[in-house]
Design goal:
- With about 50 residues, the protein is mostly helical.
- It is built from 2 helices and no strands.
- The chain is flat.
């Protein structure tokens, strides 16, 4: 992979991650309760997964 391709890939990844973060923030504002429940469930799942 040429340096130019690598730079382009990193730039696209940065844009993607920024948009993902914006989408999460928007979702958090639109439906805070459901978002909080989902975060709690995800944390529990992660804890369960790590314990095994």
């Amino acid at each position: 992979m040429s340096p130019e391709e690598a730079r382009d890939r990193l730039r696209r990844r940065a844009v993607f991650l920024r948009e993902l973060a914006e989408a999460r923030e928007l979702r958090k504002r639109v439906m805070p309760r459901r978002w909080r429940q989902e975060r709690t469930r995800a944390a529990l799942r992660m804890r369960t997964f790590r314990a095994n």
